[in-house]
Amino acid sequence: MRSYTLIAPAKINLYLEIIGDRADGYHELVMILQSIDLADQIELHSIDSETIRVHCDHPQVPTDKSNLAYRAAELMATQFPEAFRKYGGVEITVNKHIPVAAGLAGGSTNAAAVLVGIDLLWNLGLTQSELEELGASLGSDVPFCVAGGTAIATGRGEQLSPLPSLDTIYIVLAKYRSLEVSTAWAYKTYRQQFGNTYIRNTEDLAARAAAVHSGGIVKAIFDKDTAEIAQKLHNDLERVVLPAYPQVLHLREVFANQAGVLGTMMSGSGPTVFALVESFQQAEAVKLNITEAISSEDLELFVTRMTTHGIQIVSSV
Ligand code: C5P
């Protein structure tokens, strides 16, 4: 029997622009995705029977086929049936630290870890791009979670071009435990309200993506200019999520008024709000101030920082 332990980092969106819709029901996006130190730990064990089992220490996380980690293992079993028969099944244990249904790609990064872990467990020798391609069939954020670091993502979010690494910027994250935003709802509502502004011509879509590539936030990332990155944070989904969730809007305002906060934004489809700050000390001070200002048992806060890596192997037995 063999086993692997992996670290699966969460992500935040430094930039999310919705530029069009697609025949497959998804949206054409230009995003800048950033891995952060807040991470789940995933253990994978080979087991005798040809089955997939998932365990998780978080009561809200399902352990059946609705869990993306389960579906990642199932995908590997279908794609590589001989290896599945040879090495047997797999038992997956998820130790959750990333808030659930938060806009932080918690489910996607668990799935990415399962792809990377099973590749090792079954000696498949897949390349990173093969793993990313498998990941894309599970969810739009899974390829980025395999790669990690800082990247521009286009298409439905699965086409990645790496950007220079940012690993010195501290972040404070806040999420109401009881609040969940459906990603499908956020995109559908955006389409209903702003679909008339979508670009529908392929050349213009490419031109818009290219404009972001050469735009202000990307330049700020190349310059490693934290204050400028913070000024250029953007997320189109705030236009539908903030009006519908006053608590998130309030959180966003409280963050914006804190000393030491360089910029604040909602991540993905929310409801997590994050702020970029200059130092660890400032991040701790912001966390304390927000805890006092909002004083709710339901609010969870984290101090974390940007990281350069995606899925990492921490041990193998
Ligand atoms: O790809 P993923 O399963 O994470 O997406 C969740 C939902 O978000 C999709 O079902 C779709 O409604 C919406 N979505 C979208 N366009 C994207 C990514 C996600 O409309 N590029």
TrEMBL record:
A single GO BP term for this record reads: terpenoid biosynthetic process
Kinase: is it a keyword of this entry?
Answer: yes
Occurrences of domain GHMP kinase C-terminal (ranges): 218-292
Which residues are in the GHMP kinase N-terminal domain?
67-149
Q: Which domain of life is it from?
A: Bacteria
State the active site.
K11, D141
| One GO MF term attached to the UniProt entry | 4-(cytidine 5'-diphospho)-2-C-methyl-D-erythritol kinase activity
UniProt-listed Enzyme Commission number(s): 2.7.1.148
Query: One Pfam family from the UniProt entry?
Result: GHMP_kinases_C
**Which reaction is this enzyme known to catalyze?**
4-CDP-2-C-methyl-D-erythritol + ATP = 4-CDP-2-C-methyl-D-erythritol 2-phosphate + ADP + H(+)
Q: What class of enzyme is it?
A: transferase
Please give the pathway this protein is involved in: Isoprenoid biosynthesis; isopentenyl diphosphate biosynthesis via DXP pathway; isopentenyl diphosphate from 1-deoxy-D-xylulose 5-phosphate: step 3/6
**Protein keywords:** ATP-binding, Isoprene biosynthesis, Kinase, Nucleotide-binding, Transferase
Please give the function described in this protein's UniProt entry.
Catalyzes the phosphorylation of the position 2 hydroxy group of 4-diphosphocytidyl-2C-methyl-D-erythritol.
What's the protein here called?
4-diphosphocytidyl-2-C-methyl-D-erythritol kinase
Natural source organism? Amazonocrinis nigriterrae CENA67
For this protein's source organism, the top of the classification is: Bacteria, Bacillati, Cyanobacteriota, Cyanophyceae, Nostocales
